[in-house]
Amino acid sequence: MPHIEVHDVSLTYDTPAGRVVGVADASFDIERSEFVCLVGPSGCGKSTLLNIIAGFLAPTAGELRIGGKPVTGRGLDRGIVFQDFAQLFPWRTALKNVAFGLEMKGMAQPERERIALEQLRLVKLEKFANAYPHHLSGGMQQRVAIARALAYDPSVLLMDEPFAALDALTRDDMQRLLVDVWQASRKTVVYVTHNVAEAVYLADRVLVMSPHPGTVKCEVPITLERPRDPLSVAFIDYQKELLRQLSLNARG
Amino acid sequence: MSALPDRARSLRRLLTSLLLAAAVYEGLARSGAFAPALLPTIATVARALFDGVLDGTLPAHALSTLYRVLIGLALAIAIALPLGIGMGRYRPIESFFLPLASALMPIPSLAWVPLFILWFGLGNATAIGIVCYAAIFPMLINAWSGVRAVNPLWLRVGSAMGAGERTLFWKVIVPGSLPFLLAGLRQAFLRAWIAVVGAEMLAASDWGLGWVIFDAKEFLKADVMLAALAVIGLIGFAFERLVFGALERLTVERWGMLRAGKG
């Protein structure tokens, strides 16, 4: 049984300008421990789709199941990381940010701080456990956010362009780190990006989305061995293939 | 940068400002343009201050003023903090209380004094009521704004990690709006401090710094009036710098939610 099942999911908004279709009849399955990237131009509904999976938005039609259970709202089976560095709580140290989810579960302080420290070690930030977010760089803040989303051990990790606001060198480091973290934790990852090279580097499978109305047009499995070499011919061929699909869709 | 040079620099700035202002005043007092009884020299005011402190009357007046301010402020916070946060969080509370607050806010607190005297008589109850009235609105408006300014991402992340409404309130909304809450507290204290002196002039009998000024007027004792004003300024300054400054340094400045103030 697939871990995440999305069947004919649609979302329409009523705005003052009339009815807007955010997502139209999206259907796909994601296997357990699979790394899937949703790729598409801005406005194609990829973030909306992620927010539906997260339970922040309710689809107006269709069906969504995680682990066989219909999704009715947010839940601790999903961790989420956003693009904005401001997602961390500025009044909590890195350690206490990471421990937040465990605190919500009612875990005692020594236990949750031990686990939070382990998670910080996984993203190589254990030395900064007692630093406040504003003393950390953007890349470090995003690593804390990843540790925080993983700390309460959800089975699904949802990521909405988490590295898009980082400089290119830091982004490369973060992508390598994320692959390591994913391979160590074996979470199911749904990762939204508009960066084709990032999708080819990270994903087991790329779902290409197109706008007006936002829907999944095709999927491209990436069968390259890890660690992947972004300069290899095969890697670049995948990028070309994805770009071709994206431009086909753009022309409609 | 260590704390000490910063502190020393801040003290130097303070002394420079004060000395300069004092020099201008002293020059004016000695110029002979005004009668010495109306514009006494700093030495005369200092003597009045010293005498008042020595015989214990000035500290006693200051304490009764402080008592009225702190009780009135505490009442105002007890009302305005939950109400302001409620207004920021829940639409029905906002739509009921916002028009009410907007209508009451522009009325000067001192305009209520005659009515309060009719209702509560002369004395503490009226002064505390006026203080409370003056302090409520800055606290209310800041709490309301602070809650609306809480980053929605924090609420989203918090609820994604399983925080219920109650937990979100204590662990996200209150710390997230703290820069506003502290600003509100600061303004509320200042408004309360301003209001209490006026209320004491009109409604207090025998005790309080406002009453000292009003009473000294009867005897043309400008030095006593200025001494009382100096005490009022000093206590206000001490609270502003020591209490509210320290609260901000320990919380929102440390968390990077507010730039450190200089001066």
Overview of the molecule:
The complex is a heterodimer of chains A (252) and B (263). With 252 residues, chain A is an alpha/beta fold. Chain A has a domain at 1-77 and 198-239: Rossmann fold. Chain A contains eight helices and ten strands. Chain A has helices at 46-54, 94-98, 100-104, 109-122, 138-151, 168-185, 196-202, 233-251, and strands at 4-15, 18-30, 35-39, 61-66, 69-70, 78-81, 156-160, 188-193, 205-210, 215-221. Chain A has a six-stranded mixed beta sheet with strand order 6-7-8-3-9-10, sandwiched between helices. A four-stranded antiparallel beta sheet of chain A has the order 2-1-4-5, with helices on one face. In chain A, α7 packs across α8. Chain B is mainly α and 263 residues long. Chain B has a domain at 59-233: MetI-like (MetI-like fold, Orthogonal Bundle). Helix content of chain B is 79%, strand content 0%. Chain B has eleven helices and no strands. Chain B has helices at residues 3-30, 42-54, 57-89, 91-104, 113-120, 124-148, 152-160, 165-176, 178-203, 209-218, 222-250. In chain B, α5 (113-120) packs across α6 and α9 runs antiparallel to α11 (222-250). The model of chain B has no long low-confidence stretch (mean pLDDT 90). Chain A binds chain B through residues 54-56, 74, 76, 78-80, 82, 84, 86-87, 89-91, 100-101, 104-105, 132-135, 148, 152, and chain B through 151, 153-154, 156-163, 167, 171-172, 175-176, 178, 251, 254-257.
In short:
The complex is a heterodimer of chains A (252) and B (263). Chain A has 252 residues and is an alpha/beta fold. Helices cover 36% and strands 26% of the residues of chain A.
